[in-house]
């Protein structure tokens, strides 16, 4: 590389990296807002599980592949991509200007080959996901990947150095800009460079932070404009897309942080070719950083929600394994209490494979409002920043020529207006309420949707002792003072689904024993069906929608995630011989005749997600329904 950069600098470790023949493992990292680049070298270690990452006193940089989702029991295409670690033995901080001067100024030659999935084929996948998955209750949103492919004859170190410099000088708004080279004698060398906009998880001094980013404003070729960004900020589809991923990451925060998470924002993250909206979530935790990563695999912004079924849907519609796309780049650093963690998501990244093959994966978030052709364009736009650094598409004029969208009149007000849809409970500090419910034991049954972690957190806020157990691990539904049957993906009419059969069985057990029961969303629909109300697919899915709906005479702002609904019609006689039908449940319905809730002696159910960040009145309704089923007099409910 001596012909393409200065032969020597005042930074010996950087010189060694740039002069390497490819046998030296290294990482070059510029973290958010930094004026220096961290140069790391060390030993390559492959491990099987996140808990095996060797935190023995040295810093460790781990490259976590998507296949690690199997650690949570999720379905994935397992390509055997290694969980590769660089155990850092030497490090150096170099001023950004010195790094830029030392790196190759010209892009390496590369031959573009195009996307592995053509535009029309990808658009067809988008249509099928909307119709066959979202339209059939599989979930609220899903991310489907495709890859741009190219070929280069450049040596790995030269290619990575060239790409890294281009990303440093032409991209803006990145959370991390990086180049990592991790050779191994056992498997393929891992070489990647990228500029990811999104923090997945940080842990520092006991504070966990996540950074859900969603919604995409594609800058026109002439550059972004005030009118363009304001139109984007008003777009219903883009708003709902962001709130869905906030809900999904708040599920993770509720599992990770005993006191729950708090929402801060929103913000507008501007990059060279795209802008996104984002929130910051924060809470306190004492969990080991490796376990924290396991609990939060992987970001909904690159998978979908609910998480477990999103992985199943991805496996159905992506025929090739993901490798490291949507995985995590995780830096563990020793601190006073153990290890801190800084872990961005692996997106906007180019991978150099053995033999000179280059891949740049990109995906679009598919929701009920998605237009296939727009999602095709979004994948192209997301790949373009990295492709520009490879010299495969024209580069922009540079960050100095880009208008600052955050400074434009009306942008701050449009961002603030989004919070009018949020539940105050998730925005303010969440001190436990004084309640006559205190001390009761609650079993929350998870039907493969971690909204249950948020439900459990709210129940604890109301003073109850709540725990979450997966549906197939529940032994006894009669021991607890209250059982909450939670939401989940799927068709509530499908009696062949073992989850639905389990909901039916547990409803019968609790009702027959006269024990308090609360059912949410999918479980509400099953309960309604047992009570004789017909269940039908809605004309349009209500996934990630906030509605002002009637709940027993009171209008409540609640977030909905349902494709099916129980209908307010005459109760069928066929259900008259079961214990639920004998309760003669009182229905509450919206203007379209879709049941919003049911209640009877010791039993209640609700269609909406009271725990959602969209549910401004969720805690109030949850308190009232919980008191009803437990026979506790209704008093003034806790503040929202």
UniProtKB/TrEMBL annotation:
<dbReference type="InterPro" id="IPR019999">
    <property type="entry name" value="Anth_synth_I-like"/>
</dbReference>
<dbReference type="Pfam" id="PF00117">
    <property type="entry name" value="GATase"/>
</dbReference>
<dbReference type="Pfam" id="PF00425">
    <property type="entry name" value="Chorismate_bind"/>
</dbReference>
<feature type="domain" description="Glutamine amidotransferase">
    <location>
        <begin position="443"/>
        <end position="623"/>
    </location>
</feature>
<keyword id="KW-0456">Lyase</keyword>
<dbReference type="InterPro" id="IPR029062">
    <property type="entry name" value="Class_I_gatase-like"/>
</dbReference>
<protein>
    <recommendedName>
        <fullName>anthranilate synthase</fullName>
        <ecNumber>4.1.3.27</ecNumber>
    </recommendedName>
</protein>
<dbReference type="InterPro" id="IPR017926">
    <property type="entry name" value="GATASE"/>
</dbReference>
<dbReference type="InterPro" id="IPR015890">
    <property type="entry name" value="Chorismate_C"/>
</dbReference>
<feature type="domain" description="Chorismate-utilising enzyme C-terminal">
    <location>
        <begin position="120"/>
        <end position="382"/>
    </location>
</feature>
<dbReference type="InterPro" id="IPR005801">
    <property type="entry name" value="ADC_synthase"/>
</dbReference>
């Amino acid at each position: 590389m001596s012909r393409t950069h200065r032969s020597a600098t005042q930074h010996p470790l950087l010189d060694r990296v740039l002069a390497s023949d490819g046998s030296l493992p290294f990482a070059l990292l510029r973290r958010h807002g930094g004026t220096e680049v961290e140069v790391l070298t060390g030993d390559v270690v492959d491990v099987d599980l996140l808990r095996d990452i060797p935190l023995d006193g040295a810093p460790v940089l781990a490259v976590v592949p998507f296949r690690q989702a199997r650690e949570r029991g999720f379905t994935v295409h397992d390509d055997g991509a290694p969980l590769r670690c660089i155990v850092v033995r030497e490090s150096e901080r170099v001023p950004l200007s010195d790094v830029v001067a030392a790196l190759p100024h010209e892009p390496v030659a590369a031959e573009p080959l195009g996307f592995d999935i053509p535009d029309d084929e990808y658009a067809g996948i988008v249509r099928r996901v909307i119709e066959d998955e979202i339209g059939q209750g599989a979930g609220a949103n899903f991310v489907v990947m495709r890859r741009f492919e190219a070929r280069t004859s450049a040596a790995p170190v030269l290619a990575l150095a060239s790409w890294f410099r281009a990303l440093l000088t032409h991209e803006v708004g990145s959370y991390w800009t990086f180049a990592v080279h991790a050779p191994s004698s056992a498997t393929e060398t891992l070489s990647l460079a990228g500029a990811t906009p999104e923090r997945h998880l940080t842990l520092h001094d006991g504070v966990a932070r996540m950074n859900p980013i969603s919604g995409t404003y594609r800058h026109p070729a002439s550059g972004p404009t005030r009118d363009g960004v304001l139109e984007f900020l008003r777009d219903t589809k883009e708003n709902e897309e962001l709130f869905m991923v906030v809900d999904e990451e708040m599920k993770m925060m509720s599992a990770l942080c005993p006191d729950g998470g708090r929402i801060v924002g929103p913000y507008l993250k501007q990059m060279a070719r795209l802008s996104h909206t984002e929130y910051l979530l924060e809470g306190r935790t004492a969990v080991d950083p490796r376990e924290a990563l396991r609990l939060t695999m992987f970001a909904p912004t690159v998978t979908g929600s609910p998480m477990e079924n999103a992985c199943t849907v991805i496996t159905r519609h992506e025929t090739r394994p993901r490798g490291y796309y949507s995985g995590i780049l995780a830096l563990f650093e020793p601190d006073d209490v153990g290890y801190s963690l800084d872990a961005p998501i692996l997106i906007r990244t180019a991978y150099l494979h053995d033999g000179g093959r280059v891949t740049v994966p990109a995906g679009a978030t598919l929701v009920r409002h998605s237009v296939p052709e727009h999602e095709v364009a979004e994948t192209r736009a997301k790949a373009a920043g990295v492709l520009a650094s490879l010299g495969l598409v024209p580069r922009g004029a540079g960050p100095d020529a880009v208008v600052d969208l955050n400074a434009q009149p009306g942008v701050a007000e449009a961002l603030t207006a989004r919070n009018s849809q949020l539940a105050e409970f998730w925005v303010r500090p969440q001190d436990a309420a004084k309640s006559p419910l205190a001390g009761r034991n609650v079993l929350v049954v998870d039907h493969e949707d971690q909204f249950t972690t948020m439900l459990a957190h709210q129940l604890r806020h109301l003073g109850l002792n709540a725990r979450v157990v997966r549906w197939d691990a529940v032994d006894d539904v009669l021991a607890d003072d209250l059982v909450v049957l939670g939401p989940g993906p799927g068709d509530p009419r499908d009696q062949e689904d073992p989850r639905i059969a389990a909901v039916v069985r547990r409803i019968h057990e609790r009702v027959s024993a006269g024990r308090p029961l609360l059912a949410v969303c999918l479980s509400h629909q099953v309960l309604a069906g047992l009570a004789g109300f017909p269940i039908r697919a809605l004309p349009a899915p209500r996934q990630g929608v906030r509605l002002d709906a009637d709940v027993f005479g009171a209008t409540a702002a609640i977030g909905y995630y349902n494709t099916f609904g129980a209908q307010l019609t005459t109760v069928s006689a066929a259900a008259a011989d079961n214990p639920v039908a004998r309760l003669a449940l009182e229905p509450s319905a919206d203007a379209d005749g879709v049941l919003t809730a049911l209640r009877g002696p010791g039993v209640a159910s609700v269609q909406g997600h009271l725990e959602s960040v969209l549910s401004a009145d969720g805690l109030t309704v949850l308190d009232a329904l919980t008191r009803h089923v437990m026979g506790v007099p209704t008093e003034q409910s806790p503040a929202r």
